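Title: Comparing notes on inverse folding

I've been comparing how different people in this forum approach sequence design from structure. To keep things fair, I'm posting one structure and asking everyone to reply with a full sequence. Here's the target:
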């Protein structure tokens, strides 16, 4: 197993349904697509994945504490770091 990690702490919206919609849209609208790379020119990639969250641990912790009234459980710094690491640092 690799011990690598993301160099920039970010979390992206990976929406598989949007990718399927984009492929279906191109296939139905354009009858002949010249090559596989032509999909990129026919459909904007911004519509597929347009959310990206950049948070350092301090930002994540402050944001989490701001909305702590929503969460019924109090998390320690270690537990918060594990949650942040899972979504923002792990590959």
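Reply #1:
Here's my take.
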């Amino acid at each position: 197993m690799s011990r690598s990690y993301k160099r920039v702490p970010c979390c992206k919206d990976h929406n598989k349904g949007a990718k399927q919609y984009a492929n279906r849209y191109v296939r139905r609208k354009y009858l002949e697509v010249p090559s596989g790379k032509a999909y990129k020119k026919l459909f904007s990639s911004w519509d597929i994945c347009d959310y990206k969250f950049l948070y350092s641990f301090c930002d994540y912790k402050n944001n989490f504490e701001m909305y702590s009234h929503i969460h019924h459980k109090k998390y320690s710094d270690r537990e918060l770091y594990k949650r942040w690491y899972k979504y923002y640092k792990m590959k």
